[in-house]
Design a protein that fits this description.
The protein is of the alpha/beta class. It contains 17 helices and 17 strands. It has a domain of about 220 residues. The radius of gyration is 20 Å and the shape is globular. It binds flavin-adenine dinucleotide (FAD) and iron/sulfur cluster (2 copies).
């Protein structure tokens, strides 16, 4: 199997998600993340990085390594499921603020928890993802110190590429407590970084995530605006969802033209999603190492219409459980009915299928002489062994065809 010798091997083998953590480690003068013609955020080594820095990157890059919940975070009363990992509680939950609930992705659980953390002074700021105010189709990492900053920039599902961790070392350098909200791959990278950088656990107090089906390459958003004959520099708002659940895909131009499309019609068939290869082989898209993972609760996996917004929460750690109870007690979120693992399976059939398929996909990569992701504590081999031979073969062969298209 070919191995990873340098940064471009991660990118060229389709393992990079464009999180920007390598840039954050090496510095912008050494590594720069930028949008590729294919619509992916990709890092480039612009001046030679030392072997020590490259090794640091290899040990945390979500393209090379992903691990489950650290042992010290697993409490004795945690339940465990082969697909969904460790959890202390499964429940419905949403923001009690009607405006936040309406305008956020699902029911505003993540924004609601973030605002609670800020207003209760448990953290100084939230590191999360928002729209670039000058180029609203693009996403940026953001540090928000109050409710207005947090909500004032499209802090809702951004389904395009986002370098969520490109300023993570800048956040650590501020020497202030903060919480990070991001995708499962981001959270795993932060947990791995915490093994070698003691500032992470000291300062980054909470890790909140969303269950993640993958993001769409930038070209999908470009095609969307072009279908209305709108150019990127004409945009004042670009929204994937929210203002309802799921809400509509919506754009507004600087001269006031508005266009929208139903959530389901934007996504359509899975084959048109333009999800990068790395997401198809993702060993943890369910936020195994976060304190809390938020998800949609559409039975069967896709919305049948609009509703008021009902998140489910997979609460994984004691810290996550305390946060949920404290935020509910302080009136920021509502905790609804308890859920069972079977409910979560029903809400997320695509995640169940991916978790079962991932090990076969990794095997397919290895057999095609392609490097794959090192994993630990994610049970993907155990799940593989429970699958039918036909299922595994199909997944193994399928990935071989995809490798050729990276
Ligand atoms: C790429 C992507 C894939 C998704 N796939 C699924 C899925 O498979 N199943 C599912 O149930 N839901 C999925 N979602 C939707 C979303 O996670 C849920 O709706 C979840 O319940 C959060 O809802 P909320 O109302 O609590 O979020 P909100 O309160 O609206 O908060 C959203 C938070 O997510 C952060 N965020 C937005 N976009 C990104 C991004 N690209 N990278 C990192 N952080 C981001 C924001 O900064 C904000 O903090 C996905 C979202 C994204 C961005
Ligand atoms: S750290 Fe992130 S941006 Fe850098 S190579 Fe890895 S996945 Fe890509
Ligand atoms: S599917 Fe996995 S790799 Fe892709 S964005 Fe989601 S968590 Fe990251």
């Amino acid at each position: 199997m070919s191995s990873i010798e340098n940064l471009s091997d991660i990118v060229d083998n389709g393992l990079c998600i464009g999180c920007g953590l390598c840039q954050s480690i090496a510095g912008k003068d050494k590594i720069k993340v930028s949008m590729s013609p294919k619509g992916r955020l990709e890092p480039k080594e612009i001046s030679k990085i030392s072997p020590e820095v490259f090794n640091k990157i290899l040990n945390i890059c979500p393209g090379t390594i992903v691990e489950g919940l650290p042992k010290e975070e697993v409490t004795s009363d945690a339940k465990h499921n082969l697909v969904w990992g460790y959890y202390l509680s499964l429940c419905y939950s949403w923001s009690t603020d009607k405006k936040i609930r309406f305008e956020s992705s699902t029911g505003g659980l993540l924004n609601g928890l973030s605002i609670y953390l800020l207003e209760s002074k448990k953290v100084k700021f939230i590191m999360h993802t928002a729209a670039d105010s000058k180029k609203p189709m693009r996403s940026l990492s953001k540090f928000s110190y109050n409710k207005e900053e947090l909500l004032g920039g499209e802090s809702r599902s951004r389904y395009g590429p986002a370098a969520t961790l490109d300023r993570f070392h800048e956040a650590l350098g501020l020497n202030q407590s903060f919480a990070f909200v991001g995708k499962p791959c981001d959270i795993s990278a932060i947990r791995l970084l915490s093994k070698t950088d003691s500032r992470v656990n000291k300062l980054c107090k909470y890790l909140l995530t969303l269950v993640c089906g993958g993001f769409a390459e930038f070209t999908k958003a470009q095609d969307f605006i072009e279908s209305f004959k709108v150019k990127e520099d004409e945009l004042s708002i670009f929204r994937y969802r929210g203002f309802g659940n799921p809400g509509r895909m919506y754009i507004k131009t600087k001269d006031g033209r508005e266009y929208d499309r139903e959530y389901n019609s934007f996504w359509g068939e899975e084959s048109t999603w333009r999800v990068p290869f790395r997401c198809k082989i993702c060993p943890d898209a369910i936020g195994e190492s976060a304190d809390v993972a938020a998800l949609d609760t559409w039975r069967g996996g896709s919305p049948k219409g609009e509703d008021e917004g009902f998140n489910a929460a997979i609460v994984r750690t004691k810290k996550g459980l305390d946060l949920m109870y404290d935020a509910a007690k302080a009136g920021f979120i509502h905790i609804g009915d308890k859920l069972k693992i079977e409910d979560i399976d029903d809400f997320q059939p695509h995640q169940v299928n991916k978790k079962k398929a991932v090990y076969a996909r990794h095997l397919g990569m290895t057999k095609n002489d392609s490097p794959t992701i090192n994993t630990k504590g994610l049970r993907i081999k155990e799940l593989y062994k429970l699958n039918s031979e036909d299922f595994n073969k199909k997944e193994e062969l399928g990935v071989g065809k995809r490798i050729k298209k990276i």
